[in-house]
Amino acid sequence: MPDEDATVPEANVPEGPGAAVLRELPIEQELQESYLTYAMSVIVARALPDVRDGLKPSQRRILVAMNDLDLRPGGRFRKCAKIAGDTSGNYHPHGESVIYPTLVRMAQDFSLRYPLVDGQGNFGSIDGYPAAAMRYTEARLSKFAAEMLEDTGPQTVDHVPNYDETLMQPTVLPAKFPNLLVNGATGIAVGVATSIPPHNLGEVADAVVHLLDNPGCTVDDLMQFVKGPDFPTGGVICGKAAIRRGYRTGRARLVVRSRIAVEEGRGDRKSLIVSEIPYQVQKRALIERLAEVVKSGVLTGVSDVIDESDRRGMRIVIKLTPGADENVVLNQAYAHTQLQETFSINMIALVGGRHETLNLKQLLEHYRNHRVEVITRRTRYRLRLAEERRHDLEGLLVAVGNLEDVIELIRASATVEDAREGLTMKFRLSRRQADVILNMRLQRLTGLERERLQADYDKVREEIDGHRAMLANPALVLDIIREDVHELRETYCAGGKDPRRTEISDQVVEVSTEDLVAVEPMAVTISRAGYLKRMKLSVYRRQRRGGRGVIGASMRESDFTERLAVCSTHDTLLFFSDLGRLYWRKVYELPLMGRTAAGRPIATTFSLRPDERITSLIAVAEFGEGTLAMATAGGRVKRTALGEFANPHKAGIIALRLAESDRLVGVELVGDEDELVLATAKGKAVRFAASDVRPMGRSSAGVAGVKLREGDEVVSLVRAEPGTELVTISANGFSKRTPADEYRLMRRGGQGVVNMSVSQRTGPVVACLAAGGEDELLVMTAGGLIVRTSVGGIRSMGRSVQGVRVMRPGEGDRVIAAARVPVEEDEPGDIGTEEDDENDEDVEEVEEENAEVEDVGDEDADEDIDEDIDENDEDAGEDDEADD
After folding, report:
1. d(Cα 829, Cα 810) in Å, to the nearest integer?
2. Does some domain include residue 872?
3. Do 465 and 367 fall into the same domain?
4. Which runs of E-coded beta strand occur in 129-225?
5. Torsion of CA 563, 568, 569, 570, to 10 degrees
6. Domain boundary among 157, 177, 197
7. Structural contact between residues 579 and 663, judged by C-beta atoms closer than 8 angstroms
8. Is residue 27 included in any domain, yes or no?
9. How far is 297 from 420, CA to CA, in rounded Å?
10. Which of 35, 38, 129, 136 is catalytic?
11. Alpha carbons 547 and 550: distance in angstroms, whole number
12. Which residue of 147, 154, 234, 566 is surrounded by the most CB atoms within 10 Å?
């Protein structure tokens, strides 16, 4: 490649005058120059609108060709083929096939807020169907286009020759109608694009008047009149901040939603009725997309989509399934279909042949300046005509005043030229005035005509004075603009004839993932091997006590379900580990799997330490008031404000400080008025007020909660609400209900009382929880079996009995966890099993054994209470040392 600074040698230089000279040029230089020439041609002559009339060259030429054909509003229609042919032949030599689509768009009331062409025939539809061929359709100018073309002529706007220099065409229209703002514009050029939204004519007219009255106003002042874009298809613009930003800077992104109403049907069925859709969205494509996302399962809760639109308007019916949440369905539809679209404001237009980004005030100022120039040029032209008319009338008045002399001079002249020279010499007239006198009719010589001549002369003088005053005083020109804009408003918008179509909502669209998720109960499980999953609670059948259960997960060898939490999809689930650390996730963020799926390794969700295990799951709807009570296997308890856990780190945070050999076994959400129960594996329980444990920081170790005997440990922390019962479950599937009031309220730190008579038959206590007779219980075994049963099916018994069998684990299996399930209304359940008779026999057998144990248990419990009361005072001093 030659050096750009080097002298480029000339090659093949022909001899002789006028011969062409060939020069070698770097190819990158030629490409750059040629591309810039092409880019400017596209920007100026094809893709971007002129800021003055808001039209692209092709649109302007179509309107001019229709005006040449005299296709005025209210007049005749002509075939679009004729219009496209004249436009192509006279002004736009690019073929009718590219002109006709532009003509069609200017006639579509769903494309332009105020159509510039009045079409007759099939001009397409909002469904996306194309217009009929140009030989079948007819068109004429609309009333708005007529306002654009008023006073079109070389005296008001510049004209240039057409492509073959046989006709003159305007470079811009006078544009009494503020087309750029009210109809908007879209276009893509080379390296630049424009997207100006349409607006309401009444609002723009008011803003123009305000600008004329207050030239120093701000964009915010103008926004008192121009509320926002007004799309021809209506819809709802969400949020005003983006509108303000767009009007101030010329760039913004608007969120536009469909207008949707909820219609109640029979029973609990509902339907979403779509009556308006976002601008530039095709209805057919929207319906196809809705059907696609419903079929694929992305959009849930929808049973059918029906198009019931007719001539009266749009009506798309989205039928919901029974019980579906319309808000969740709407949010999902907004996220995955064109029911919600983004409109980009990019207000770029040509100003003096260069593209500029303009704000709202600048657009209005350019319209005002253009109208000032048009009216000024029109006034100058009218002044020139008036002065010429006055000059002619002055000559006629001279002739009429000297009628006999004029007649005698003309009669004595041999030729017309002699008469013309005689008149100019004798009466000091101009050649033009002499010609006017020579061409005067004899009827002008009557007395009445002479009076009319004088009246015309006086009128013309007044017109001249008015035109000169207007040219001398710019304020008068602004008054004309004000009158024109007021006339437009009164003609097209007064009396509610043109109301705003697009609603502007204060709602800011911040659709989170949570808004796309339906609120429904979930069961979250963690297996012994560390597999996490969530399942819909409805997969578990309700059974009577003693049932075999259903398979809850397909466990690997030696693995079993260890932790269970019943919660809502919108809850925040707190994961407490045995090392005293806290992790959390939104429930809907957890992997949703089937009942028999093993789950996903918890290591993919949390960064747990090699020896760390999740021991407690707490579902929290909001991080508001309340405290979290925690208990360790070694018998220590603590309380910490819930708000301290609202913002944990990705790697987890410290929930409490543990001794080296201790571990966290239970966490409950409690208030100061609540009571707590610590249950141990060997059947002991201590009940005390939560207020006995003062709130502490996250890193504190807590205070003594229960004094444990050798080999015993705490298995559950229970919040004992007034009027509830404690349900205790053992490893071999035995369970019982005992009123919480039977557990004497004492100070924390004692050995407690008997909770369950533990034996080899029952196995150790594995769980204790508070539940009412209307609640349900979800019990799981190490082998992965889960049974869901009603708490009311478990008999209420005393503290020291063994209970009845709530589940029959298989050989080598054992119960490892249980959770209370919220009651769901009208939920069918299996209320009979093949083992009901066998269960009843178990109940009778267990009740006989309970009778033998009950007396001994109560006596032991009383002794424990007396011993605990004495020891509590001794432990009080130790508790303070264990605090922060």
Report:
1. 23
2. yes
3. yes
4. 138-141, 159-161, 168-170, 185-188, 193-196
5. -120
6. 177
7. yes
8. no
9. 95
10. 136
11. 9
12. 147
Q: Give φ, ψ of 369 to 5 degrees.
A: -65, -40
**Residue 781's CATH number:** 2.120.10.90
3-state DSSP assignment of residue 671: coil
Question: CA-CA distance, 856 to 844, in Å (whole number)?
Answer: 20
Residues comprising the chain, all counted: 884
Two tokens at 875? 């432990």
Distance between CA 284 and CA 276 in Å, rounded? 13
The structure tokens 């000169």 sit at 468
Structure tokens at 583: 């992790």
Please tell me the distance from the alpha carbon of residue 561 to that of residue 192, in angstroms, as a whole number: 60
In angstroms, the CA 145 to CA 138 distance is 16
Tell whether 656 and 790 lie within a shared domain: yes
Question: Could you tell me the two tokens for 580?
Answer: 């005293």
Closest CA to 750 of 799, 709, 710, 721: 709
Q: How far apart are CA 295 and CA 665, in angstroms?
A: 45
> Which among 37, 165, 40 has a CA at the least distance from the CA of 91?
165
Whole-model pTM?
Answer: 0.68
In a domain, 301, yes or no: yes
Out of 143, 177, 211, a domain closes at 177
**What span, in angstroms and rounded, lies between the C-alpha atoms of 51 and 373?**
14
Which CATH number do you get for residue 381? 1.10.268.10
* Structural domain contains residue 718: yes
Contacts of 76-85 with C-beta under 8 Å, sequence gap 24+, read 76/140, 77/118, 77/120, 77/138, 77/139, 77/140, 78/138, 78/139, 78/140, 79/134, 79/135, 79/137, 79/138, 80/134, 80/135, 80/137, 80/138, 80/139, 81/134, 81/135, 83/139, 84/134
Q: Are residues 368 and 330 in the same domain?
A: no
Helix (H, G, I), strand (E, B) or coil at 463: helix
Tokens of 856: 């001994």
What pLDDT score does 697 carry?
A: 84
DSSP-derived secondary structure letter, 444: G
Give the pLDDT of residue 20: 66
What letter represents residue 665's amino acid?
V
Q: Quick check: is 136 catalytic?
A: yes
308 and 429 fall within a common domain: no
Residues 461, 544 within the same domain: no
Distances (CA, A) of 123 to 101, 204, 685: 10, 28, 82
- Retrieve residue 446's tokens: 């009557």
Number of continuous H segments (helices) and E segments (strands) in the chain = 18, 44
Rounded-to-integer distance, Cα 146 and Cα 492, Å: 13
pLDDT score at 338:
95
Q: Which residue ranges of the chain lie beneath pLDDT 50? A: 1-11, 557-558, 824-884
Q: What is the pLDDT of residue 5?
A: 47
* Residue 634 and residue 560 share a domain: yes
Pairing outcome for strands 78-79 and 714-720: unpaired
Domain boundaries, position 423: 361-494
What is the 3-class SS of 279-319, one letter each residue? CCCCHHHHHHHHHHHHHHCCCCCEEEEEECCECCECCEEEE
Residues 745 and 877 in one domain: yes
Residues 632 and 774 in one domain: yes
CATH code of the domain containing 321: 3.30.1360.40
Looking at the 3D structure of the chain, how many domains does it have?
4
